[in-house]
Amino acid sequence: EEAGVQRDRVVPAEEWLQKWAAGKTGFHKERGHPLLQKYLDVLVNGRSGLRIFFPLCGKAVEMKWLADLGHRVVGAEISERALREFFSEQGLPYREEAVPGVPGARLLQSTCGNISLYCCSIYDLSSAIIGKFDGVWDRGALVAVNPCDRQRYASLMISLMEKNSSYLLVTVLYDPNKHKGPPFYVPEGEMRSLFG
């Protein structure tokens, strides 16, 4: 079931940064993702003031939407440009600081403090740095990480989750032999083995 054409593919960070620099961000959804709207109740489950994590967040508009609903949003993204565009496009003032213990990383945080976006490799983060979360919105993250890093990624995500947290995962279905990715094809069996 594992697609040979994709198994060894590695997309260097530089390639993602170039996509953002060139505006080749077809994966960005201007109006928010319909699946998040549809399954928000599953994620929130009647609770308020949740901490919600957006791995590889880009400039996802849902971050502001959830913050406006009273939740605290934390994102991780390697492209500084994406994060700056998020704040400017959403009309949100923000401050910026270094991240203690993570050389080169920056934290861009809305001035009212409810959106905190870390500009660094997601693998540089841990619960010691960003805390734990009640919910994760994984839209295009698992399917974007290099197949060889999936186990590492899943372990990190699990380590960031509170006991009763919800993990919403969006994947893509297609014939992986016809497309080299990203987004990569993650078979259902593999998702089960990664996340249990």
Automatic annotation (TrEMBL):
<feature type="binding site">
    <location>
        <position position="77"/>
    </location>
    <ligand>
        <name>S-adenosyl-L-methionine</name>
    </ligand>
</feature>
<keyword id="KW-0963">Cytoplasm</keyword>
<feature type="binding site">
    <location>
        <position position="56"/>
    </location>
    <ligand>
        <name>S-adenosyl-L-methionine</name>
    </ligand>
</feature>
<dbReference type="InterPro" id="IPR008854">
    <property type="entry name" value="TPMT"/>
</dbReference>
<feature type="binding site">
    <location>
        <begin position="121"/>
        <end position="122"/>
    </location>
    <ligand>
        <name>S-adenosyl-L-methionine</name>
    </ligand>
</feature>
<keyword id="KW-0489">Methyltransferase</keyword>
<protein>
    <recommendedName>
        <fullName>thiopurine S-methyltransferase</fullName>
        <ecNumber>2.1.1.67</ecNumber>
    </recommendedName>
</protein>
<dbReference type="GO" id="GO:0032259">
    <property type="term" value="P:methylation"/>
</dbReference>
<dbReference type="GO" id="GO:0008119">
    <property type="term" value="F:thiopurine S-methyltransferase activity"/>
</dbReference>
<feature type="binding site">
    <location>
        <begin position="16"/>
        <end position="27"/>
    </location>
    <ligand>
        <name>S-adenosyl-L-methionine</name>
    </ligand>
</feature>
<dbReference type="GO" id="GO:0005737">
    <property type="term" value="C:cytoplasm"/>
</dbReference>
<feature type="binding site">
    <location>
        <position position="139"/>
    </location>
    <ligand>
        <name>S-adenosyl-L-methionine</name>
    </ligand>
</feature>
<keyword id="KW-0808">Transferase</keyword>
<keyword id="KW-0949">S-adenosyl-L-methionine</keyword>
<dbReference type="Pfam" id="PF05724">
    <property type="entry name" value="TPMT"/>
</dbReference>
<dbReference type="InterPro" id="IPR029063">
    <property type="entry name" value="SAM-dependent_MTases_sf"/>
</dbReference>
<dbReference type="InterPro" id="IPR025835">
    <property type="entry name" value="Thiopurine_S-MeTrfase"/>
</dbReference>
<comment type="similarity">
    <text>Belongs to the class I-like SAM-binding methyltransferase superfamily. TPMT family.</text>
</comment>
